[in-house]
Design brief:
Length: 365
Amino acid sequence: MSDSAQPALKEMFNAARFRHIARDTAAVYPKFDPKRFLALTLPDLEPCNLLQRLRRVTEGLRATLPPDYPKALAILRRLAPRTERGFVSLFLPDFVGLYGLDHFDESMEALKFFTPFGSSEFGIRPFLRQDLRRTLTVMEGWTRSEDDHVRRLASEGCRPRLPWSFRLDALVADPSPTGRILDALRADPSLYVRKSVANHLNDITKNHPDWVLDRVESWDRENPHTAWISKHALRTLIKAGHRRALGVIGAGQEARVQVGQFSVTPARVRLGGTVALSLRLISEARQPQKLVVDYAIRYVKKSGTSSEKVFKWKALTVAPGEEVTLVKRQRFQDFSTRKHHAGTHGVRVLINGREWTDGKFFLVV
């Protein structure tokens, strides 16, 4: 590993972290046995991934804290303020989700308490799967909390397709049970909460776009917070050129423009390099018009076929006869989620959902 390389995510739960958790637990619960906890959690740690290591903490605490769940929970509540905030603290709600299903009321209060330290979004999901209506009733009450972490949990925890968690199949099939929660948060003053609401709605658009559009169109989008949520909630539909979704943001009409020039430079680029896109547009409308300009890249796959991804470029309003030039730079480098392959990559320009021009470049790997 080079000096500049970042440590693997799983190293958030390395041996030193386990020892730190053991020391802190002993500080709030003197009967705790740190040696037993470490003997249960440290062997063969290296091949375990991030989530497996987090679960080791949870299971190790279950084996070393009092077997009575409410007593163990009281100790974890004292431990929480001593725990590093963020992902490291997720073993606290994980304990609740794994062992607290038979103690509904105590577990709901614990998840609400733990969420400001990191997030209880994963810990709440076993309760939703076990008793959807009862759990959503509690979460609806959380929408009225003064704490934006708790309000966010009300939305994030019941996302149908929450990343790194199992799908809530009942909500994938029918999102309506979460409608009151989403309505309650539609103008939330916290960006942290608004992002969650938008992501929740975007999840739903994959199966029920009309349900989302009906709800968003019924909201007062003159409120800037509601307008922000609406736009970001529809981002997948807007990228796909969905006419009704484009209409929500004022770009539902077909663009009346002339493409003066579109260039993709250089014609050949090496992996790690950058391609520049330049687009010159001239408005042919007699009135100002809203334009949503996107671009799509057809990536060459290992098999030689291609896979397209749409990127946002710019949303703008142009005056009659106005000429604008847009420039975008796209760097090509490998990530864990995308590996590049040599070959000719196509580029399409989309304006208000319709393709207007295209180009190409050759990627050298």
